[in-house]
Amino acid sequence: MARAVTPRRKALVTVLAWTIGLALFFPILWTVILSFKTEGDAIASPLTVLTTPFTLESYHVVQDRSNYFLHFWNSVVISLGSTLFALVVAIPAAWAMAFVPGPKTKDLLMWMLSTKMMPAVGVLVPIYLLFRDLGLLDSRIGLVVVLMLMNLPIVVWMLYTYFREIPGEILEAARMDGATLKDELIHVLTPMAVPGIASTLLLNVILAWNEAFWTLQLTTSKAAPLTTFIAGYSSPEGLFYAKLSAASTLAIAPILILGWFSQKQLVRGLTFGAVK
Amino acid sequence: MGEIVLKGVTKRFGDVEVIPPIDLAIHDGEFVVFVGPSGCGKSTLLRLIAGLEDVSGGKIEIDGKDATETAPSDRGLAMVFQSYALYPHMSVKKNIAFPLKMAKLPPAEIEAKVQAAAKVLNLSAYLDRKPGQLSGGQRQRVAIGRAIVRSPEAFLFDEPLSNLDAALRVNMRLEISELHHTLKTTMIYVTHDQVEAMTMADKIVVLQAGRIEQVGSPLELYRTPRNRFVAGFIGSPKMNFIEGAEAAKHGAHAIGIRPEHIRISTTEGMWKGTVGVSEHLGSDTFLHVTTEHGLLNVRAGGEVDLHHGDSVFLSPDMAQLHRFDKEGGALK
Amino acid sequence: MSTQASRTAARLMISPAVILLLGWMIVPLAMTLWFSMQRYNLLMPGMGGFTGFDNYSYFLTDPAFFDAIKNTLVLVLGVLAITTVGGLLLALLLDQPFWGQGIVRVLVIAPFFVMPTVSALVWKNMFMNPVNGVFAHLAKSIGLQPYDFLAQSPLASIVLIVAWQWLPFATLILLTALQSLDSEQLEAAEMDGAGPISRFFYVMLPHLARAITVVILIQTIFLLSTFAEILVTTNGGPGTASTTLTYLVYVQSLLQFDVGSGAAGGIVAVVLANIVAIFLMRMIGKNLEN
Ligand SMILES: Nc1ncnc2c1ncn2[C@@H]1O[C@H](COP(=O)(O)OP(=O)(O)O)[C@@H](O)[C@H]1O
Ligand SMILES: [Mg+2]
């Protein structure tokens, strides 16, 4: 890429790329803008909306009505909990597949991925009934378990691809140095794989945060994460754009901020470790 | 103590027998070099000794005790890997301290041993750096440091110098030899480079396709190679081989003569030839001479005045002639 | 790198993951299979009993079933087509040098972070609403009749919403893959006289094959279970115009409380997904080998 690009071409690409970028981002931007308007202003035509004053009114209404912080906290516990739990199970498994591969390793990995293909509806009925009978409906622990199982194959897969980049000789050196398997995993492998583990963690937290099948089916109120909280705004009720926008902004802001701050790891993670 | 005895050790990967049954005794304090062409099973043999691979048959004894089933960390051996295998997330100090930490030594003792090792290896100034910030030679020293702090029964080196440039390789070769003289610990050193083998070893083990071709001191191998493979592998430049009628004259299927054992003259000699490419190294000159018996490599003095196309005569030093039978075995 | 001890350790280390996933697959699936052969309606307790394949014939002959299959295919293939083609074009664009690359990349990725319930609600109300939506305002401002997206083309509208969410993913993967293309390869092709079009088809596209495979595999996994977008926009309607297989099973089991027939639908979904999975795994297995 050492060749000079003509300024005209660069300008053209710049205009085109920015136009598309802004267009794709516009729904989010628009939601944020509407969240700071009154209900009356929010339904005006787009150009008029921009001239109206800002207000925090809708945020107050949303918090009073549905206790945002409870749901925010539920989302944090569920997404982080399920991911950490999955990592604890997946790190040893990925270690085994990456460093002690056998003739069946590839098949095992493919099988794990294929469980991810099982449609959730296929097990909706029994899981729902099981949860009902075990009193796990609308409980955080229940969702942590289900989402952990949902994401486990992806976590194993991603860790496996990252671990494979680590030379096996280093782990052998640790073994020669007297490290037990536990030492090898905790003092050598995990610290070396920190970037990969961080990417895996981030991506799966986001997937769990945005998961909207099981969270909607299995929670109603006290354990409801933000996905369920926002679904409460799905039936139209008079003028509600500003409230809906405020609630939406509150639901996506944490992940957007997290995503932007950790862009590098996330971009790595987003490719599921499968593309370099 | 660091006596290692292999008794009928074999290794198969699936159906492929990489190491046919091997018997070998390595004495305490010896510097043993496994040498052979790439892919001949040197690393595999070393890893069997280390315990990083299971033997498919046979027994490994360390200091008289059967260690065949012993875990790598309990064999009392330290290994330096070709890629150094340093822990990239730990400082030099932590790298060297790692085996001691695993052995649960008290921190004060660890500190003392690390400092001592760093001093021996000229690493004291770099203790807080990460491996990524070191040169190849320094990384190599850290890897050695990590091995020596444990005061192992024996050191295992797997082509430790192959990632270094030529000049550094010569230096490190000397440092490792020096280390051996200081520590007097058994060292097993794997290389495909016969120069390293000749310069460092007390005892050389020449391997081909997993088989031991010959075991002996560097000069033994040089003087009395047991077969054509060893004769050709040890010594640089390689021994010249001549087959056919000329060999039959000496009652052999093939005869071998090293470049340094051929006299060259412009007036008289046994074989007539024409000079081809000549390599002037200053101290020596290597001449490629085309004769009726094929291309022969000849070492001459540093200042010979011979050029491409000149006619010359070659005479082998009969006392240094090696004779081989049809199977490649040396004839007495 | 393997001794008997390390292989034993490996088996031990891998077993929790395997056992958990096996349990997660087998226990509920066996239960679904069992329920699917029972008469089991949550509204009519005590009416249970074995019915054999009645639930299946009921589910499979329901006209809604064929609509659901068709809609699922349209949804998955539609979104895949939009995101791979769009993602490829966008990746080619973003791979060019221009001012503000970092910011534009952030803008493009953003939709991926938006949870499905939010994006569906935002599109439904603030954009596609025929009275107050942005599109309606735009249409009116140029003198056109506003279009009621979700009522008149419900499935296409949902495809659009889902494609918006997944376009960033496809773009990002393809962009990453493009950037890993050795520029010397392109230069060599140029020296060999290949124009931009041939360079794209003969050098870039083969290089992207693996990335495209990944895009298709991962998106298919997620798209087959699209649920929230339908729930909060159309509820599968009007009629069954936007009911997918996933949504149909949900309606049967949890809205109509017919557990038996819902379970039968679940098994049908699993069987169909497995057919897709086998097909995809074949393709992936080949492409991911190296
Ligand atoms: N894990 C393994 N599985 C199968 N074959 C192997 C394995 N490790 C080594 N080999 C084979 O064993 C032979 C010897 O390898 P190696 O010991 O690494 O040779 P060297 O170190 O002498 O170059 C080679 O042919 C290699 O392909
Ligand atoms: Mg080797």
TrEMBL record, chain A:
What's the protein's topology in the membrane? Answer: Multi-pass membrane protein
PANTHER family hit by this protein: INNER MEMBRANE ABC TRANSPORTER PERMEASE PROTEIN YCJP, MALTOSE TRANSPORT SYSTEM PERMEASE-RELATED
Q: Does the keyword field hold Thylakoid?
A: no
Q: Which GO terms describe its biological process?
A: transmembrane transport
Among the entry's GO cellular component annotations, what is one? plasma membrane
TM annotation in the entry: 12-33, 72-96, 108-129, 141-163, 184-209, 240-261
Q: Per the annotation, which location comes first and is thus the protein's main one?
A: membrane
SUPFAM superfamilies attached to this UniProt entry: MetI-like
Report what the protein is called: Sorbitol ABC transporter membrane protein /mannitol ABC transporter membrane protein
Q: Where in the cell is it found?
A: Cell membrane
* A Pfam match: BPD_transp_1
Q: Which UniProt keywords apply?
A: Cell membrane, Membrane, Transmembrane, Transmembrane helix, Transport
Q: Which CDD domains match?
A: TM_PBP2
Q: According to the lineage, what is the superkingdom?
A: Bacteria
Q: Does the keyword Cytoplasm apply?
A: no
Q: Which residues form the ABC transmembrane type-1 domain?
A: 72-262
Q: Which family does it belong to?
A: Belongs to the binding-protein-dependent transport system permease family.
From TrEMBL, chain B:
> Which Pfam families does the entry mention?
ABC_tran, TOBE
- SMART domains membership: AAA
Family matches, as InterPro entries: AAA+_ATPase, ABC_transporter-like_ATP-bd, ABC_transporter-like_CS, ABC_transpr_MalK-like, ABC_transpr_MalK/UgpC-like, Mo/tungstate-bd_C_term_dom, NA-bd_OB-fold, P-loop_NTPase
Q: Which GO terms describe its molecular function?
A: ABC-type maltose transporter activity; ATP binding; ATP hydrolysis activity
Q: A GO CC term?
A: maltose transport complex
Q: Which PROSITE patterns does the record match to this protein?
A: ABC_TRANSPORTER_1 (PS00211), ABC_TRANSPORTER_2 (PS50893)
Provide this UniProt record's keywords sorted from A to Z. Answer: ATP-binding, Nucleotide-binding, Transport
**Which residues belong to any copy of the ABC transporter domain?**
4-234
NCBIfam families assigned: PRK11650.1
Member of which family?
Answer: Belongs to the ABC transporter superfamily.
**Protein name listed in UniProt:** Sorbitol ABC transporter ATP-binding protein /mannitol ABC transporter ATP-binding protein
Q: Which organism is it from?
A: Rhodobacter viridis
TrEMBL record, chain C:
Keywords attached to this Swiss-Prot or TrEMBL record, sorted alphabetically, are:
Cell membrane, Membrane, Transmembrane, Transmembrane helix, Transport
Q: Which InterPro entries match?
A: ABC_transporter_permease, MetI-like, MetI-like_sf
Q: Name one GO biological process term.
A: transmembrane transport
Q: Which residue ranges traverse the bilayer?
A: 12-35, 73-94, 106-123, 155-178, 208-228, 263-284
Query: Topology in the membrane?
Result: Multi-pass membrane protein
Taking every annotated instance into account, which residue ranges of this chain make up the domain ABC transmembrane type-1?
A: 69-280
Query: Where in the cell is the protein located?
Result: Cell membrane
Q: According to its record, what are the GO cellular component terms?
A: plasma membrane
Q: According to its UniProt record, which protein family does this protein belong to? A: Belongs to the binding-protein-dependent transport system permease family.
What is this protein's name? Sorbitol ABC transporter membrane protein /mannitol ABC transporter membrane protein
- Tell me the organism: Rhodobacter viridis
